[in-house]
């Protein structure tokens, strides 16, 4: 079960000489719960500019040119803690970043520059993942020797940078049309020639998995567009279970079985040869006793 909540982008431009020219357009932004989104002003703010951000007409962030009056969330809107520690203002551009987005963040986000006549309003869709789907996305279990593919779960463009980490070690990345795998010595020793990175989708495949590959793999992908940047951070726990016996143990068992079979064959043939040797003189004596009797009957 999924749900989508929306915000919109409406842009108004204010020109000089007392005339107001209004340009309105909508930009849809699709994000998932837990993502971070940066709402871009598209300008380099002047020192005297005063930027204010509103969510559903409630002020949530403000920055003055001299930075003497900068606030976010609690300080701006008289104690409301809806965005506590999740808002960040860029002092150079006035752009606003909302971290770890939740469904309660739905609404209209409006930027005003100097006055309400010059403003920009954003509309974002928040994709809510069901608990079952989220668990499937976050956990991968395979048997030793099998391959496992870690999927970003988002559609990327060629320019979108992708980075994969295991624990805190960077193991693979895509920047524009360049891909890099295991440039770290420790990574190279651990995953030697067993990582494959799909430049089109950003997915990471681990071949010939080993129990030492178990751990938490983290994806960081940034999708930059004209009016916003969405950063997705996704963690996947990989569990690689042993096949029961290691390859060395299996090889050892095969060798032992082979030796036992060979020894049994040697013993069998030796005993058979000894038995034949013991029976041979006895059979010769019997033949000597039988022959005279047969000859006697012939003489009669």
From TrEMBL:
SMART domains: IG. It comes from the Eukaryota. Residues 276-300 are annotated as: Disordered. Residues 276-287 have a biased composition (Basic and acidic residues). Residues 1-16 form the signal peptide. The chain crosses the membrane at residues 248-270. Residues 26-129, 137-241 form the Immunoglobulin domain. The keyword Membrane applies. InterPro entries: Ig-like_dom_sf, Ig-like_fold, Ig_sub, Ig_V-set. Keywords: Membrane, Signal, Transmembrane, Transmembrane helix. This is Uncharacterized protein LOC113040391. It comes from Carassius auratus. The gene is LOC113040391.
């Amino acid at each position: 079960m999924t749900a989508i909540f929306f915000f919109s982008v409406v842009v108004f431009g204010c020109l000089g000489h007392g005339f107001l020219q209004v340009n309105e357009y909508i930009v849809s932004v699709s994000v998932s719960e837990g993502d971070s989104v940066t709402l871009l002003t598209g300008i380099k703010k002047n020192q005297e500019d005063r930027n204010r951000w509103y969510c559903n007409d409630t002020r949530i962030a403000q920055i003055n040119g001299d930075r003497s009056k900068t606030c976010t969330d609690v300080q701006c809107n008289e104690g409301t803690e809806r965005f506590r520690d999740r808002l960040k203002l860029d002092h150079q551009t006035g752009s606003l970043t909302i971290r770890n987005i939740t469904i309660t963040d739905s609404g209209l986000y409006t930027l005003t520059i100097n006055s309400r006549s010059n403003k920009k309003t954003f509309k974002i869709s928040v994709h809510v993942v069901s608990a079952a789907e989220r668990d499937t996305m976050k956990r991968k279990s395979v048997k030793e020797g099998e391959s496992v593919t870690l999927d970003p779960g988002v559609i990327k463009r060629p320019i979108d940078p992708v980075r994969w980490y295991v624990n805190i070690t960077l193991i693979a990345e895509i920047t524009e049309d360049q891909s890099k795998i295991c440039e770290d010595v420790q990574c190279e020793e651990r995953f030697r020639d067993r990582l494959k990175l799909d430049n089109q989708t950003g997915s990471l495949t681990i071949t010939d998995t080993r129990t030492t590959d178990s751990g938490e793999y983290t994806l960081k992908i940034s999708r930059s567009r004209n009016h916003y940047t969405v950063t997705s951070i996704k963690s996947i726990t990989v569990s690689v279970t042993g096949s029961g016996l290691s390859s060395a143990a299996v090889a050892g068992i095969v060798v032992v079985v082979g030796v036992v079979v060979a020894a049994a064959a040697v013993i069998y043939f030796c005993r058979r040869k000894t038995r034949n040797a013991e029976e041979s003189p006895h059979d010769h004596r019997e033949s000597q006793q039988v022959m005279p009797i047969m000859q006697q009957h012939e003489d009669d």
